[in-house]
From TrEMBL:
Coiled coil: none annotated. It is an enzyme of class 3 (hydrolase). One of its GO terms (biological process) is protein transport. It catalyses: GTP + H2O = GDP + phosphate + H(+). InterPro entries: P-loop_NTPase, Small_GTP-bd, Small_GTPase. Belongs to the small GTPase superfamily. Rab family. Residues 13-27 have a biased composition (Low complexity). One of its GO terms (molecular function) is GTP binding. Residues 1-12 have a biased composition (Basic residues). Transmembrane segments: none annotated. It comes from Amphilophus citrinellus (Midas cichlid). SUPFAM superfamilies: P-loop containing nucleoside triphosphate hydrolases. This is small monomeric GTPase.
């Protein structure tokens, strides 16, 4: 198996996990929780990750990810440190077979479409089929409508995203890598869900991901960023 890295990472080589070899075989063996970003090319997966990791937005020219890229981030959830290993996949069709190899080791998937690109939304069904085929049955999936800041170019209504998510029984929210809207929340929500699963007390009620997300958004007012 040949490791392919994005050009950006190859050039910079900083901030990424030291050993991408840890995957795909050891995703469930103490390497932390693995969260994989999937969705069409250009929907903003890399930007979402960079926003989450570095708090910055990559404006300017679009550098499409080649193969797969890795970033680690430690989060503190209820005073417990949770290590997330985040896999940023290439959305381009020609890298699909690379991505397939990683699905089974992912604990959570953030599935993105671009609210300004109807085709990326229409492809969500195909992505869900692919997930069903390659990922673990108990994988946590969350649907994200990214680029929510781009009001003038919007092509997919928030309600459409909500409806699709409901149909497939997955939690949903709109995000923006540009403004930062819900970026932290998206990762926190899946990390919480995964933490609950691994450290479950016998009497503890099941963690309700969508309820948590809705509550967090309410308490943050209309525009959490
Ligand atoms: N307005 C706006 N633009 C965004 C946002 N997120 C990403 N973009 C832009 O969308 C383009 C694609 O972003 P990327 O993050 O590189 O897309 P990707 O999903 O990683 O694409 P692949 O690596 O090819 O799969 C870039 O030009 C970004 O500047 C967002 O939240 N709002
Ligand atoms: Mg990318």
């Amino acid at each position: 198996f040949v490791q392919i890295m994005s050009r950006k990472k190859a050039a910079k080589g900083k901030g990424s996990s030291k050993s991408p070899k840890a995957s795909p075989s050891s995703g469930r063996t103490g390497k932390g929780l693995t969260v994989m970003l999937v969705g069409d090319s250009g929907v903003g997966k890399t930007c979402l990750l960079v926003r989450f990791k570095d708090g910055a937005f990559l404006a300017g020219s679009f550098i499409s990810t080649v193969g797969i890229d890795f970033r680690n981030k430690v989060m503190s959830i209820d005073a417990v440190k949770v290590k997330l290993q985040i896999w940023d996949t290439a959305g381009q069709e020609r890298f699909r077979s690379v991505t397939h190899a990683y699905y089974r080791d992912a604990h959570a998937l953030l599935l993105l479409y671009d609210v300004t690109n109807k085709a990326s939304f229409d492809n969500i069904r195909a992505w869900l089929t692919e997930i069903h085929e390659y990922a673990q049955q108990d994988v946590v999936v969350m649907l994200l409508g990214n680029k929510a800041d781009a009001t003038h170019d919007r092509a997919v209504k928030r309600e459409e995203g909500e409806k699709l998510a409901k149909e497939f029984g997955v939690p949903f929210m709109e995000t923006s890598a540009k403004s930062g809207l819900n970026v932290e929340l998206a990762f926190t929500a899946v990390a919480r869900e995964l933490k609950h699963r691994t450290m479950k007390e016998p009497d503890e009620p099941k963690f309700q991901l969508q309820e948590y997300v809705d509550k967090e958004m309410r308490t943050a007012g209309c525009c959490r960023s």
